[in-house]
């Protein structure tokens, strides 16, 4: 059996590891010519289901490396008003390793490095289209001229998935009307002095009453791994409040707009934004997938943001990893042919995946 995975973010590589453990031939295709580290590195939260997925698919030593290079959890989640007064706080239980999984905070770049280790990855291969073959297999065609046949093609290519567009042209991903500018500031002594205390001890978010918001969270590695500790920040607002279309701006201009958007908030917040290396600054709009009914199963399926893009709410990454682990388990533990196993995965994934999409919309600031 051979399986092709398109997309080398997080869920695609994890699926590849799970399949490899069962001796399945798997190849990972990625549109980037090489790992773009600047576009991959921010703090993300993994709920216990994400930790369990990592345990299920990774070799023991690789999983241990992921945990060792994860971040310190901090003691809670805090919502602040624009005067940095505490509005709401939830205390997070201490890290506990057990059968039910644990909460992890990870740097996306560091996690991706760990997940890509030892995998067969074909970089510089943007996906173009697939063809369903008469023999029940699938042929994938790439922009670099390469083609490959397999028993299953898996889309792990994110929100703008070209595989989803071909397989499910009726699928909708809608704009929520919010835009985000985000970056990371190295945790120098100056940055520590400027940061709200809540941002250095867990996750925090400043929430205005006009739709503006600013998540802030320190990422301090549990053990040294060669990367610097940093403060992740996001400046979000209704897109209608922006002075210009963000996609037209370079990184320096994005940084300037982010600082100006919060100019009437405490000066230390804008100072944190201005301390950031512009190379780490990016912008995006917030999107959410509309629920789908199950389709006719073919040797093409989807995981992660390729099927259930959701509003950033601290749950999306774990759900994507859960997809990878579930699909791996359904394939490797099947008793018969492949497609019924894929069908079972799809029906279960659609249920919990779009429940998570709804939960993310309700939990957004």
Your description of this structure?
InterPro entries: FAD-bd, FAD/NAD-bd_sf. Keywords: FAD, Flavoprotein, Monooxygenase, Oxidoreductase. One of its GO terms (molecular function) is FAD binding. It holds the Pfam family FAD_binding_3. This is Monooxygenase. The protein is of the alpha/beta class and 365 residues long. The chain folds into 2 domains: 156 residues, FAD/NAD(P)-binding domain (3-Layer(bba) Sandwich); 174 residues, FAD/NAD(P)-binding domain. The protein is built from 11 helices and 17 strands. The strands form 4 sheets. It has a 7-stranded mixed beta sheet. The chain has a 5-stranded parallel beta sheet with strand order 7-2-1-11-17. Strand 1, helix 1 and strand 2 form a beta-alpha-beta unit. The model has no long low-confidence stretch (mean pLDDT 94).
Radius of gyration over all CA atoms, rounded: 21 Å
Helix content bin:
25-40%
Count of alpha and pi helical runs: 11
CATH superfamily of the largest domain: FAD/NAD(P)-binding domain
Give me the CATH fold name of the largest domain.
FAD/NAD(P)-binding domain
Helix/strand-derived class?
A: alpha/beta
CATH class of the largest domain: Alpha Beta
Write down the secondary-structure element order.
Answer: EHEEHHEEEHEEEEEHEHEEEHHEEHHH
Protein name: Monooxygenase
Keywords: FAD, Flavoprotein, Monooxygenase, Oxidoreductase
Pfam family, one: FAD_binding_3
Domain FAD-binding: 2-333
